[in-house]
Each structure stands twice: as structure tokens, then as C-alpha cells.
Amino acid sequence: MLSTVGKQLRNHPALIPLFVFIGGGATMSMMYLARLALRNPDVSWDRKNNPEPWNKLAPTDQYKFFTVNMDYKNLKKDRPDY
């Protein structure tokens, strides 16, 4: 299969940007999915030791990927401890 792709790219060099952008998009989407699976507080990988990881978040913890006009350092605690 790789030899076929290599032959096509040698014969049609205009396909190189297509392969680069498709490969880059696939890589970035896989990295984002991995970040969601590992960093999101809604995902619990260890239910025995930490069944509710969202309760252990401090108000200053940033778990969103991108926030506009939000400074997490100045937030106050607005919920009770359980």
C-alpha cells in the first residue's frame, strides 16, 4: 500500500498538500480525543479509588480547553464540600 501511495505522490506532486493536511487533521483530532479522555473531570478511569473526580476540583482548576475572558485564579468557592 505504501508503495502505491509513493508512486502516486511521485506522479502527482499536487497531492502532497492533501496528504499533509488530512494527516495533520487526523493527528490533531486524535490528540484532542486523548486530552478529553485524560483531562476531563467527567471521565472516571478509576471508579474504585475515585468514583466522583468532579468533586475534587478546586474552583481555580481550569479544565476547559479554551475560555474567553475568564480568569480562573480569581474565582471563589461557591459550593459546599461533600
Automatic annotation (TrEMBL):
Transmembrane segments: 15-38
Keywords carried by this UniProt record: Electron transport, Membrane, Mitochondrion, Mitochondrion inner membrane, Respiratory chain, Transmembrane, Transmembrane helix, Transport
Full protein name: Cytochrome c oxidase subunit NDUFA4
Subcellular location: Mitochondrion inner membrane
Signal peptide residues on this chain, from the entry's feature table: none
Cellular component terms (Gene Ontology): mitochondrial inner membrane
Topology of this chain in the membrane: Single-pass membrane protein
Protein family (similarity comment): Belongs to the complex IV NDUFA4 subunit family.
Top-rank taxon, per record: Eukaryota
